[in-house]
Amino acid sequence: MFTNGRAGIRRDAWGVPQLWGDTVEELARLQGRAAALDRAWQIEVERWRAEGRLAARLGPAELGWDRFARRARLADTAARCFRRLSPATRRWVSAYVDGVNAGLAEGAAGAPEFAATGCVPGRWRPWSPLGVFLVQHILFGTFPNKLWRAHVEATLGPAATGLFAVEGPGGSGSNAWVVPGDPAAGRGPVLAGDPHRVLELPGIYQQVRLACPEFDVLGFAFPGVPGLPHFGHAGEVAWAVTNAMADYQDVYREHLRRAGGRVLVRDADGWLPARRHVERIRVRGAATEPVEVIETPRGPVIDHDRHTGEALSLRIPARVEADLGFDALLPLLRARTVDDVAEALRGWVEPVNSVLVADRHGGVRRLVAGLVPLRDDRCRWVPVPGWEARYRWSGRYAETKPVEVAGVAVCANDRRDDVADLGVDFAPPHRAARIRDLLAAGVPSDAVHVDTRLAAGPLRALLDRLDPAALAPEARALRRRLRAWDGRMAADSTDAGAWAAWRNALVRRLHDHPRLRPLRTPARYDALFAPWTDPLARLGHALDGLVGGADRLGVDVAAVAAAALAEVAAAGPAPAWGARHRLHPVHLGVAPDVDTAVAAMRDRVALGGDTDCVLATSSVPGVSDACWRGPVARYVWDLTDRSRSRWVVPFGASGRPGDPHFDDQLPRWAAGELIPVPDTDLTREGDPS
C-alpha cells in the first residue's frame, strides 16, 4: 500500500474528490471537509432534520417532520449509538465531524440556500453523522406499510391486505449483480448495479476516493456520514447492497392514561409508568410548538390512530441495542477479501441489506447484513397490541450466513431463499429474471443498467382477457396496438405513452370503484405518512396484485379495464413516454437559483424506464408520470483492473448551482453512460485543494 503522500483533496475531471490522509483520522477529517465544501446545505438540512429543528429555519411547513423526529427520539438514539461505539470508531467519527466543522463556513458561502433563507451553518456534534444516517433510513424500512395494512384491514377486511404485499413508496427498485471471473485466465469478477431511491437534489450519494497508508477505496458515500457503508471498491475486493426487504421495525398499539401528572401505559403486567417530557419546537414566523415525547417499554410514541385514539409506538433495533452498526465501517474500508467484508458486516444493525461481495481471486458471497428480530408473525403485518405478551421481541435475531455463489448472482429486492423468511413486501421477480436473461445473452453490465422492457405480467394478461367485440372501434384499435407493443418504456415511444395513459386511467377508475371506495375513509394517521397511506398512490403501487385479485372483492376488473381503454382512446393520441415521464428532483425549493436549475434539467433530458423495468425510473400510476425516484447511482466494479471501473450519479459532485460539477453528469446518466473512476497515483506530489 501507500507509504507516503501529501495530505489533501484532489479532484478529477468531474470534480470528484480524491482524498489522501497520512492517518485514518486525518483521512476522516478530509472526508468531512469535502462533504462540507461540496454539500454544505444538504448536510446541514439533514442535521437539522435529525435534531428536529428544521422548522426553526424554514417555517411551519417543516413542523410535521420535526414533531416526528422529536417523538421518535432520533437525536437521542444517535447519541446513544455514538456512546456505544468502540474508542477507535469514536475517534474516527469525531475526526470526520471536525472536518465538517472546519469546512462548513466556506461551503455555506457558496451555497445560495443559506443566503436565500438567512440561515447560517451551526456546529456538528460527535454523534451528528449517526443522526444523519438515521434520518436517511428511518422511513426506508417497513413500518409505514403496516399503517397502510391496518387501514386496509379496517376498511376492506383482513383478506384484502395480501393484495398490497409489494414494496411501497419507500421501497427500492435497486439492482446488483455479479458476473463471475475466470481465475485461470487471470480475469476477476465484475460487480455492478444501481441503487434506486428518491432522486434528491443534491444526490443522496457522493462519489469519493478515500486513501491512506492502510487502504485505498473508492465508492459512494452518504454526505454527512464517514466511510462507504453501501458501495465500495478497495482494489482487491468490492461490495454493493440492495434493500433486503426485511421487516425489522414494529409498530405497537398503546393504551395510555394520565394520573397525577404521570403517563401510564398498559402492559401485559398491568399499568406501568411511561417516560414523558415536553420539548418546544421553534418555528420560523410562528409560535413555538410544544411536543409531548412519550416512550413506552416498546419504544417512542410516534403518532396516534385518529379512529381508535390509541397511541402508536415504534420499536427498531438501533434504539433497542443502542447500535447502528458503525463499528463495521472502518473494518469494511480495510477489507481485502470477501471473508473480510463478511466479517466486518457481522456487526451491522440497520437498515437490513442484501450484500453482494466479490474479490480479485474469484470469491463471490451473498449475505444479509443487519438485525431482524424474531417475534410473532403478526408483527410483520400491522400494528399489534403492546399490552399482549405474545408480541414482545424475543431478544433474539434471525441467523443469516454468507452464501458462496457460483455463476451469476442477482439481487433486485426480490423474494429469494436467503431473504424470504425475513420480510413481507418484496418486489416482483421480473427485474431479477430480466437481468439474468440479459447477462446470459452476453449483454455487458453497462447496457443492462438501462434496459426498459416491462414484464409480460398481469396487466398485459388483462388486455388479453378483454373481449374485442365488446369494445368500440377506437378502444379495440388501442387494445390491438398495446398488445402488439414490445413492452419497452423508451422515452421516444408513443406506444409506451399510450400504455401509461391506460394504466393511469385504470388506477383512477379502481380508486373510484364502490368496492374499493372505503379505502378513502379519512386518514387515520399523521400527514407525514401520507405517501404510504394515500389510497390512490397505494392502488398505483399495487396494481399487479389488484388486477390479479380484486375480483375476490367483487370488482369486475375486466370491465374497469375496458372503460379505461375507452377513456384513453377517446382522448386522442398520447404523447411519447418521455414527454410524460419528466424528471422531478426532490428539493426544498428555497432558492430561486436551484429552482431555475431544476427547470432547465427537465428540458435537457428525456427519460425512459419505469417502475418495473431494470431501469426503474419510478412514477406513481394514477397520480403522476413524473419521475421522482430512480437510479441514484450506477457502477461497474471491475475486479481485474480497478481503473477500468465506471460509475455515474444523476447530477454531479457539487451541490452548488452554477458550479461546473453541479449537474455535469446528468446527460450521461440520462443516456445510460458511465464515467471513469479516479485511479491516479495519490502518492505523487500534487496540488491538493
Structural class: alpha+beta
Oligomeric state as shown: single chain
CATH topology of the domain at 143-170 and 454-487 and 494-575: the name is Penicillin amidase (Acylase) alpha subunit, N-terminal domain
Q: Report the sheet-strand fraction.
A: 15-25%
Extended strand count: 27
Q: What is the share of helical residues?
A: 25-40%
Cα(first) to Cα(last) distance is: 23 Å
The CATH level-2 architecture of the domain at 143-170 and 454-487 and 494-575 is identified as Orthogonal Bundle
Q: According to CATH, what is the class of the domain at 143-170 and 454-487 and 494-575?
A: Mainly Alpha
Q: What kind of sheet is the major sheet?
A: 9 strands, mixed
Q: Poorly predicted ranges (pLDDT <50, ≥5 residues)?
A: 1-5
Shape: globular
Average residue pLDDT:
94
- The tally of helices reads 23
- For the largest beta sheet, what order do the strands appear in spatially? 1-2-6-7-8-9-18-19-21
What would you report as the Rg, rounded to the nearest angstrom? 25 Å
Overview of this protein structure:
The model is unreliable at 1-5 (pLDDT under 50). Helix content is 33%, strand content 19%. The chain is an alpha+beta fold and 689 residues long. The protein contains 23 helices and 27 strands. Among the domains are: 8-137, Penicillin Amidohydrolase, domain 1 (Orthogonal Bundle); 143-170 and 454-487 and 494-575, Penicillin amidase (Acylase) alpha subunit, N-terminal domain (Orthogonal Bundle), CATH 1.10.1400. The strands form 6 sheets. It has a 9-stranded mixed sheet, covered by helices on one side. Strands 22-3-4-25-26-27 form a 6-stranded antiparallel sheet, covered by helices on one side.
